[in-house]
């Protein structure tokens, strides 16, 4: 059977409020677990942020679900509320290191199947580079970062410096949208997640292209954007047309936007076979990787079924997207599971 590697999933360790207070007593995230141990709530200080269930923090529960879903390997990364970018850099550095160690503890329950991506204190580029290197030497397979740092997009010199460090160190980077743009108009129905989140990801990609940042970042960087690259694939034609027609669009970008597609990957979390076909047609079957956003309700509930059951993708393309591309991107070896014996 075809190997399935889910390269985009999240965890949140059972952090107590007292432990979170070391980062920020009023706003840092912690986990309130219900008496039955099956459900919980991510809290930020006294405020309930998100209801969650046991696989988010319990490796045994996670592995049982992965077995039922036929997933061979899964890369876990911080739930974005854990990033800590708004806090004091020194405390955020200590927090990131602690969360990264907790991630490895979770993965130690099945080290051939559960792998981790680190978080970093991105507000201080020196500390971020230091923690990225330390974490990867300790066993992490790459890093996950938010798609912006307040008003700084990925083309900012600060963030380009970090991406260049990762390129030079051979550290893969997953970019995840967070802290979505909204002026209060998107008040209900999870509209920040449904509208602003895809726009955030497109903004990150287009910023790297049109600013010329990709010209400054080594081509060795392994870079992936979550959620299928957001709205990028659908609107690439608009960006390309603008570059061709307006000199103010191309003034910092020496090559057509479409020529930069080889510089990054995307995951497959788009939930619709037509959208997946467009994504593969745009990016190429070598640059799309299985990603689920597990274990949240907005993630793919039957991990990999969109790809495996796609009516027009070839068997070769499916094998690459389901596992082969992630093996190459992260340098993974195939795990021995009941499915592969």
From TrEMBL:
Per the record, the pathway is: Secondary metabolite metabolism; quinolate metabolism
Q: Kindly give the Pfam families that the UniProt entry links to this protein.
A: Amidohydro_2
Q: Does the keyword Acyltransferase apply?
A: no
Give the matching SUPFAM superfamilies: Metallo-dependent hydrolases (SSF51556)
The Amidohydrolase-related domain, residue ranges: 5-332
- Report keywords, A-Z: Decarboxylase, Hydrolase, Lyase, Metal-binding, Zinc
- Coiled-coil annotation reads none
Spell out the InterPro entries in the cross-references. ACMSD (IPR032465), Amidohydro-rel (IPR006680), Metal_Hydrolase (IPR032466)
Q: Which GO terms describe its biological process?
A: secondary metabolic process
Which GO terms of the molecular function aspect are on file?
aminocarboxymuconate-semialdehyde decarboxylase activity; hydrolase activity; metal ion binding
Q: Which domain of life is it from?
A: Bacteria
Q: What EC number(s) does the entry state? A: 4.1.1.45
A GO cellular component annotation in the UniProt record: cytosol
Task: State the family named in the UniProt similarity comment for this chain.
Answer: Belongs to the metallo-dependent hydrolases superfamily. ACMSD family.
* Subunit-level organization: Monomer.
Name of this protein: 2-amino-3-carboxymuconate-6-semialdehyde decarboxylase
